[in-house]
């Protein structure tokens, strides 16, 4: 049986085909250009082939053939413009910013020690004793705090109501246009990268086989797992026939190289022009493929973000995350989709036009947020990115505070790495105006806002305790809580979620988000200092939609 030519799926395909005569005979394909292939990273594709023949009456007969094992070199990629930072670079930065900080502190110290007794005239109004109304340093501090509090609330309100308005407009537009094209149902390849996902692997694949879509395949990529992931995946390789569709499950076995290389390997061997990338624990709603593919009738759309929901709502932490996913993440994606510039395609569910991934240079392994990086690369190539609220992926969230902080630490540093990697977009909108807009938005949301939130909380609480402005502190807390309740009510209604999640909005802003933002602040500092980090895998517990409290 002739072996399939996998080289056409790799980068620099023309170069690969021109030099593939020798190695391809052994099933191993060469790589070229900026792709760096380690001979020890050879992967193997396991797929079942059909044998087609005709019976005595001339009718076609399809028989299941043997499972074939084909070797190939998976794409492993690091982008050229992502320059490595040396330790000397970080030392210079620390010295420069340290000197600037000391200079600023010295100026403040001189000002306070020399001018603390000089009154500040606020107006020309005369008080009852005929003297100008003046304000000392402590009074100035109090009144400046009130002004800062008002400005902070203005920024917060503008941010929240801006997101709410755009999200509402997108929801209204989406509700009015829910038709699906029966004629546009192209083949889709579902890529499932997995490393030690044995606990949920069978459930994940079974949920993927229940998609109400006529033509798709499932490609599991075992990224060097040390548990029973590979054994379970091998058991599930084959053809599955149900009324109206036939689904083939394939397996790619490769040494551990990270999620980006696993995704690239799956995309390489895929036979479709559209690929759905999911996580090893993703469990999709049956309508996911149909709901997402309709967006690609627009030839300018390069990727679609799905709707991620927490499945294991078993304690306070996971229920707060369930609220965060619908209010803090999905509402933002819905708002971004109104301008077709969703900034992150979530790992648990994202449908891509394969050409968009090729144009972007495939997934890269030089950040800890490959989903953010590939989205930014697709946007800067001019593709549009939208959000599909009915494409639901149920995923397990960390059920312990330590695991939650590890996850958010990695997310934050990965996003900062991706932002720094594409920093040329900040000052050069001629590359891609949409990309420049997304970069400034991400810089505010990922860098400025968390630090601003932590500082504001610490500052206002300190001022209130020192000067007895407890009423102002309570007023501030009530404003934030009411704002979160409004957002929670809207998101619960739009997402048809559990009404009980609204109750957790009381703790959401001043408890949960504050803890997460403190973690983000430390992650930002450590990323700036170049402190090393590891991936930090989350241990799965094996939740499923049938046993969870997630609404259908």
Overview of the structural elements:
- With 552 residues, the protein is an alpha/beta fold.
- Among the domains are: 7-72, no CATH class; 141-174 and 281-552, no CATH class.
- It has helices spanning 13-18, 21-24, 87-115, 137-176, 201-208, 229-236, 259-269, 288-293, 316-337, 354-360, 370-380, 401-421, 424-427, 433-467, 470-495, 505-529; strands at residues 43-54, 60-72, 120-126, 132-135, 188-194, 215-223, 238-242, 245-254, 274-277, 283-284, 301-310, 350-353, 384-395.
- The chain is globular, with a radius of gyration of 27 Å.
- The model is unreliable at 1-37, 81-85 and 115-130 (pLDDT under 50).
Number of strands: 13
Radius of gyration: 27 Å
The fraction of residues in strands falls at 15-25%
N-to-C CA distance: 45 Å
Main sheet summary:
11 strands, mixed
Provide a count of the helices.
Answer: 16
Q: What percent of the residues sit in helical stretches (DSSP H or I)?
A: 40-55%
Mean pLDDT: 77
Oligomer: single chain
Structure class: alpha/beta
Shape: globular
| Uncertain residue ranges | 1-37, 81-85, 115-130
Helix-strand pattern: HHEEHEEHEHEHEEHEEHEHEHHEHHHHH
Summarize, please.
Among the domains are: 7-72, no CATH class; 141-174 and 281-552, no CATH class. It contains 16 helices and 13 strands. The chain has helices spanning 13-18, 21-24, 87-115, 137-176, 201-208, 229-236, 259-269, 288-293, 316-337, 354-360, 370-380, 401-421, 424-427, 433-467, 470-495, 505-529; strands at residues 43-54, 60-72, 120-126, 132-135, 188-194, 215-223, 238-242, 245-254, 274-277, 283-284, 301-310, 350-353, 384-395.
């Amino acid at each position: 049986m002739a072996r399939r030519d996998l080289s056409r799926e790799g980068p620099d395909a023309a170069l690969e085909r021109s030099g593939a005569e020798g190695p391809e005979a052994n099933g191993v394909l060469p790589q070229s250009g900026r792709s760096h292939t380690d001979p020890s990273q050879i992967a193997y594709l396991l797929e079942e082939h059909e044998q087609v023949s005709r019976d005595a009456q001339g009718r076609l007969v399809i028989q299941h053939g043997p499972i074939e094992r084909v070797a190939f070199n998976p794409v492993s990629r690091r982008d050229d413009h992502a320059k490595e930072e040396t330790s000397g670079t970080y030392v210079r930065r620390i010295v420069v910013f340290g000197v600037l900080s000391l200079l600023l502190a010295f100026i403040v110290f001189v000002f306070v020690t020399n001018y603390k007794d000089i009154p500040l005239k606020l107006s020309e109004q005369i008080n009852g004793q005929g003297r100008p109304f003046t304000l000392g340093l402590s009074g100035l501090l109090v009144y400046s705090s009130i002004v800062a509090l008002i400005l902070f609330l203005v920024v917060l309100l503008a941010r929240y109501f801006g997101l709410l308005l755009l999200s509402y407009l997108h929801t209204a537009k989406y509700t009015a246009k829910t038709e699906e094209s029966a004629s546009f149902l192209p083949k889709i390849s579902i890529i499932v990268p997995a490393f030690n996902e044995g606990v949920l692997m069978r459930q994940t694949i079974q949920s993927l086989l229940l998609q109400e879509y006529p033509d798709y395949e499932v490609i599991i990529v075992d990224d060097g797992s040390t548990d029973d992931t590979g054994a379970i995946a091998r058991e599930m390789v084959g053809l599955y026939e149900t009324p109206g569709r036939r689904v083939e499950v394939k397996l790619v076995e490769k040494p551990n190289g990270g999620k980006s290389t696993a995704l690239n390997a799956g995309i390489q061997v895929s036979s479709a022009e559209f690929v759905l990338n999911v996580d090893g624990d993703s469990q999709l709603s049956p309508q996911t493929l149909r709901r997402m593919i309709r967006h690609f009738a627009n030839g300018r759309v390069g990727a679609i973000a799905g709707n991620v929901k927490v499945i294991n709502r078993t304690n306070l932490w996971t229920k707060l995350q369930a609220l965060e996913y619908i209010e803090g993440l999905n509402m933002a994606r819905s708002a971004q989709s109104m301008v077709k510039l969703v900034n992150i395609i979530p790992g648990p569910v994202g449908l891509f036009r394969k050409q968009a991934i090729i144009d972007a240079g495939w997934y890269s392994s030089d950040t800890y947020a490959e989903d953010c990086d590939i989205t930014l690369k697709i946007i800067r190539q001019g593709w549009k990115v939208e959000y599909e609220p009915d494409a639901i992926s149920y995923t397990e969230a960390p059920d312990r505070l330590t695991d939650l902080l590890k996850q958010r630490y990695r997310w934050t540093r990965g996003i900062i790495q991706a932002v720094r990697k594409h920093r040329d977009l900040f000052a050069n909108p001629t590359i891609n105006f949409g990309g420049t807009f997304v970069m400034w938005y991400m810089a505010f949301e990922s860098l400025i806002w968390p630090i601003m939130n932590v500082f504001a909380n610490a500052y206002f609480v300190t001022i209130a305790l020192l000067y007895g402005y407890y009423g102002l502190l309570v007023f501030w807390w009530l404003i934030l809580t009411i704002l979160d309740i409004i957002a929670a009510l809207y998101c619960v209604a739009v997402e048809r979620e559990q009404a009980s999640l609204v109750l957790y909005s009381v703790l959401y802003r001043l408890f949960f988000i504050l803890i997460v933002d403190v973690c983000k602040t430390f992650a930002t500092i450590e990323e700036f200092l170049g402190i090393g980090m590891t991936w930090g895998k989350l241990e799965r517990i094996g939740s499923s939609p049938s046993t969870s409290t997630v609404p259908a």
